[in-house]
Amino acid sequence: MLSNTQMPSLKTVVSAAASAAATAMVIRSVARDLIPREFQSYFFLKPRGLLGGYFSNQVTMIVEEYDGLYPNQLFQSAELYLAAVIGPDTRRFRVTKPEKQKQIMVRMEKNEEVRDEFCGVRFRWRLKSHQVPAKHVANPDDSFPGSTLKTEVINEYLPHILEKSKILKEQNKTLKLWTLKNDRMMGGPRRNPWNSVNLDHPATFDTLAMEADAKKTVMEDLQRFVKRRDFYRRVGKAWKRGYLLFGPPGTGKSSLIAAMANYLNFDVYDLELTDIRGNSQLRDLLISTANRSILVVEDIDCSIELQDRKVAALKAARPMAMDPFGHSVHGSAGITLSGMLNFIDGLWSSCGDERIIIFTTNHKEKLDAALLRPGRMDVHIHMSYCTPCGFKMLAKNYLGITEHPLFSDIELLIETKKVSPAEVGEQLMKSEEAEVALRGLVEFLEAKKEIEEVKDGEVLEEKESGSSEGVAQVEKKDGSVEEIEI
Q1: Counting runs of H as helices and runs of E as strands, what totals does the chain give?
Q2: Which of 262, 289, 299, 347 is the most exposed place for a label (fewest CB within 10 A)?
Q3: Are residues 161 and 74 in contact, defined by beta-carbon separation less than 8 angstroms?
Q4: CA atoms 279, 280, 283, 288: torsion sign
Q5: By 3-state DSSP, what share of the chain in percent is helix, strand and coil, each rounded to 5?
Q6: pLDDT tens-place string over residues 232-288
Q7: How far is the C-alpha of 230 from the C-alpha of 50, rounded, in Å?
Q8: Pair 247, 362: CB distance under 8 Å
Q9: Is 104 helix (H, G, I), strand (E, B) or coil?
Q10: Is 470 exposed, middle or buried (0-12, 13-18, 19+ CB in 10 A)?
Q11: What is the pLDDT of residues 102-125, one digit of tens each?
């Protein structure tokens, strides 16, 4: 039996819905004007809780790849962090192996989901690629319905991702040696002026031919430096450390730098001062170096003339010779001592954290005293000639032995004559047989001793006889003679 009640028409239903929507908008508008802001979230969010709590317990967090023109560090950290939590239920993910990297890199694939849990809260990550239009959020409270959950995510979960990604980055890091690009002056102002290759130098503190006490001192200084971030901030100093390695050629300065890089897991930036045209470019190069890195300036006494400020001032007053392209014909003529000092410990030196600056020289006495003081070159390390301790380390490295009957003879010769670790190593490489290699080293040291004794005898004889060897006599037109030292 059919009911006499008639169903409402479509027009009536639409009219009622429109009336209800208009009424809701009026009520919401009036409520925003009359109800205090502190109570608005309660009244507006309470009805949502009655529907099951979905809206109050789920937060949508968007992490974009770029923040304006600059990369978003949080996006890069999340990408690295999520690679470590990809589970077996993930069906698709990206796997890459760059030519210069040692390890296989795993990344999320687009539109795939990765799940994570932190402090009892479940997270679902999805990588999306799309054009993001400009947007404006009128009321920030509407973006995160769960204010408590939002606070936990921002204050706990995201810092956890940043810290964890930093650890993962160090574990997966391949050390790089950075050098200046030949075309660095071309392109935009933000173009990276550095080019890199893998730093595969095998030197470590265990293989260095240095005195054990000296190696221990350097290692302890490095450990203390990397642990004192808060200390440097508290005392108001830039978090950096300056080293000066000085000594004759072949004494292991480059090997020590490589050992420091391997010990700290720091990249190395090789700065060639003769390729730099001025102080401003030096400043730009410093800013473009990464944190946790070693900046190396080798042979600073030979690369630019910084040892005499008066001479530098006279040169600066002269007109500078230019090539057809408007560049100085002397590449480093624009770098001044003041520019170098500002580079080491001026305001620009604080643009970065956890940096080590290493200078090397064969002639420490040629450097200006202003470069040598603490705060610029904090630690001075003398790389001396080979010692008996250094020889034993070289014998262990090259021949795989720690004792031999010839050791006592070799150590006695090394103590009396100046021979570099490089010279000793070259002799030990001439044979894989320990007996043959060591006898060859003995012959080399004895021959070197005889040559030095002959030279010392000639010098002594010259002093006793008053000979003028080493002085050239030039007869002038007027008949007088001028002596010129050669």
Answers
A1: 18, 15
A2: 347
A3: yes
A4: negative
A5: 45, 15, 40
A6: 989 988 899 999 999 999 999 999 999 999 999 999 999 988 888 888 888 888 888
A7: 49
A8: yes
A9: coil
A10: exposed
A11: 666 677 777 777 888 888 788 888
Secondary structure of 40-91 in HEC code, one letter for each residue: HHHHHHHHHHHCCCHHHHCCCCCCCCEECCEECHHHHHHHHHHHCCCCCCCC
Amino acid at 199: L
Q: What six digits make up the tokens of 253? A: 């300065």
Q: Are strands 70-71 and 66-67 parallel, antiparallel or unpaired?
A: antiparallel
Q: pTM for the whole thing?
A: 0.62
Q: CB neighbours of 188 closer than 8 A, spacing ≥ 6?
A: none
The 8 Å CB, 24+ separation contacts for 45-49 are 45/145, 48/145
- 161, 81 Cβ separation under 8 angstroms: yes
CA-based nearest residue to 346, from 365, 371, 381: 371
The two three-digit tokens of residue 88, written as one number: 């077996």
Whole-angstrom Cα distance, residue 437 to residue 398? 10
Q: Residue for token digits 């100085």? A: 328
Token reading at 346 = 């001026």
